[in-house]
Amino acid sequence: MTGNIRAVSGWILVVSFAFSIHSWGQFDESKLRAIDAAIEKTIAEGKTPGGVLWLESRGKIHTKAYGHKSLVPVAEKATLDTIYDAASVTKVAATTLAVMKLVEKHQVLVDAPVASYLPEFSAVAGDAISVRHLMTHTSGLRPGLSLSENWSGMDAAYRLACSQTLQSQPGEKFVYSDINFILLGILVAKVSGSPLDEYVGQNIFQPLGMKDTGFNPDPSLISRIRPDTTNRRQHAARSGPRPDRPPDGWRRRPCRFVHHRLGSRQTGTHDPSQWFDP
Questions:
Q1: Structure pTM?
Q2: What is the pLDDT of residue 268?
Q3: How many Cβ atoms from other residues are within 10 Å of residue 225's Cβ?
C-alpha cells in the first residue's frame, strides 16, 4: 500500500493511490486489519478519541468509524457522517487553493509584492514580501499575532498584520506563520470581491460536490459536528473574558474560530476525497 494516514484533531483520513486490491475487486482484508489495529492502538494510547477512515482505490470505497467523537461532557460515538474542524488544514485545503484559483485566472501573480494587492501592508517591508513568500512561510513575519490584547475579526487582524516588524529578511528562512495566511485570506477577499469563505465555497467546494465542507456550517448540522474544547481560564488570562464561551467550556460551534481568529473550515470525512477524483 502506498498512501497517507493522518490523524488531525480527532479525524482520521486515509487517501491511497495504490492500495492492494484482489483481482476480484475487493480490498485486501489483511491490510484492512492492519489499519484497524494501528487506529485502535492510537485510540488506546489516548492520542485521539476516535475518527473516521475513508479509503478509496480504483473506484472502490472502504469506510469505518472508530472510537468517539467526544468524551466529555458526554461520550458520543464517532459516526460516518461526523463533521470535523479542519483547523490549519484550512491553509492548504482552502486558502492556498483560493489563491491558486486567482493565479489561474491571471488575477494574482505569485511573485508580485503583497503590497500591490494590499497597499496598507507596504508599511511592513515595502514591496519586499511577495505572495510566494506568504504561501511558503518565508516572509520573515513571526508565527502569530499577539494574544496579549483582546481582538477579533478581519479588520483587527489586518491592522495588526500591517503593524508587524520583520523577524528575518523575506526569503531568508522558513518560519510557519498564521499571519501569512491571514494576509492571504484578506488578499483573496480583496482581489475577488468575495470573502474567503464565500469564494472557496463557490469556486472550490461546490464544484467538487463537497457538501459537508465549508465555513460557518448551517445550524442544522450542529448535531453532526465534533464538539471542541476551550480552556476558558487560560484564554481569559491572555485576552480577557469571552461571553460567547459557555461555563463548561464546551460547545459545538456553528462558526469555528481558531487561534488566528479568521475562522477555520469544517469538513465531513468523505469530502476531502473529492480532491483526488480524476
A1: 0.75
A2: 53
A3: 22
